[in-house]
Design goal:
Chain lengths: 165, 198
């Protein structure tokens, strides 16, 4: 498990001051920690594409935001990615929970999306990494380097138990 | 009243330092041709102009952010009204240009005629909502625009407009150029590490 305070302090130190998204139970502890963290505002969005729009506006205002969603909700953001974030070249950090793997592949609402998540990310040309507990900072650094270098969105896939207490 | 006439009236109440987000299609073209440039002209992302405006309003709490949206776009992103209501950013102003149609794609009907906009929006928690129609006097619209833009608080102004559109050229700037021009206008350094004051 990644220490959530360290994780948020790291994002904060890089200038991220806003998070927005739609919850997943994989992010339950993280969202509680964000709400207790003074220097990052969390905006609960009504839909995942709305969260992308909010983060995009914040970023176009010269500040840094990250987005949180479940992979089922990732299926809601196609147009927000292609005709907003990628079209206007807005750097954006997206955390997507990786549902539908061995932990919950018996849940039918997750099983198909679990199988296609990485393929859909590749189809949308979104660089992605799987967040690992033991070297999370190095992975995040690599993703953020790519985001800054390309001025485009990047994604971190988060499996069960990685971002929790 | 044409969309371009309503937007021209908006121009008369601007101070000049507002950030305007216009929604995809005809409204962005009207904003480009009838308002001071540059603004943030969206070319896609149907349903998201209010979300983008909300993000800007949170990033720049001392600037006035104006979102110009059509009825189709507004209804697609209706959830954002509740998010705006929840956060209540005092610097965010939404102007709905309601022609009861998806004008850009050929004038197909929206469901707008079924809706009482002020009641719906008030029910979502934004009390500062006004509505006007094309039969009302020009000076009344001017007054409503001034109240919406200049008085503090999240506000929504619903303006009924006609379906007729004047032909306008496409915005000649690529979206990346739109962003660069917008940021330059507002002295936004895209590489800034500055924190927001939330």
């Amino acid at each position: 498990m990644i220490n959530l305070d360290e994780f948020l302090e790291y994002l904060d130190s890089l200038g991220f001051s806003l998070g927005t998204g739609v919850p997943c139970s994989y992010f339950k502890d993280l969202l509680l920690a964000i709400n207790e963290y003074d220097d990052i505002l969390y905006v609960p969005a009504t839909r995942e594409d709305e969260a992308v729009g909010i983060a995009c506006g914040f970023s176009l205002g010269g500040k840094k935001a990250f987005v949180i969603m479940q992979n089922s909700g990732f299926a809601n953001i196609g147009d927000a990615l292609t005709s907003l974030v990628q079209l206007y070249e807005v750097p954006l950090l997206i955390f997507i929970s990786y549902r539908g793997l061995e932990d919950d592949d018996d849940l039918p609402e997750h099983s198909l999306m679990g199988k296609v998540t990485e393929g859909v990310l590749r189809a949308y040309k979104i660089p992605y990494w799987i967040l690992m507990e033991h070297r999370w900072k190095a992975i995040l650094e690599k993703a953020l380097h790519k985001m800054t270098q390309t001025s485009l969105p990047v994604c971190l896939l988060v499996k069960n138990g990685v971002l929790c207490k | 009243m044409k969309c371009s006439e309503a937007v021209s009236q908006l121009r008369d109440v601007l101070r000049g330092d507002e950030m305007i987000v216009s929604s995809n299609g005809h409204i962005s073209r009207v904003a480009y041709h009838f308002l001071p440039r540059p603004q943030l002209y969206l070319r896609g992302s149907m349903g998201l102009p209010m979300a983008v405006g909300l993000g800007l309003a949170l990033a720049h709490q001392h600037k006035t952010i104006i979102v110009l949206t059509g009825d189709g776009n507004f209804l697609m992103g209706l959830g954002s009204v509740t998010t705006i209501s929840y956060l209540s950013p005092p610097n965010l102003k939404i102007i709905i240009l309601d022609n009861e149609a998806y004008a850009t794609t050929g004038g197909q009907e929206t469901v707008s005629t079924a809706i009482d906009y002020p009641s719906m929006i008030q029910g979502m928690g934004i009390t500062a909502v006004k509505s006007t129609d094309p039969h009302e006097a020009k000076d009344k619209l001017n007054k409503l625009l001034e109240q919406t833009i200049c008085e503090p608080g999240p506000k929504i102004l619903h303006i009924k407009i006609g379906k007729e559109m004047i032909p306008l050229d496409y915005i000649p700037w690529h979206p990346v150029r739109i962003c660069l021009n917008f940021k330059k206008q507002h002295n936004i350094n895209s590489k800034t590490e500055e924190k927001n004051d939330v």
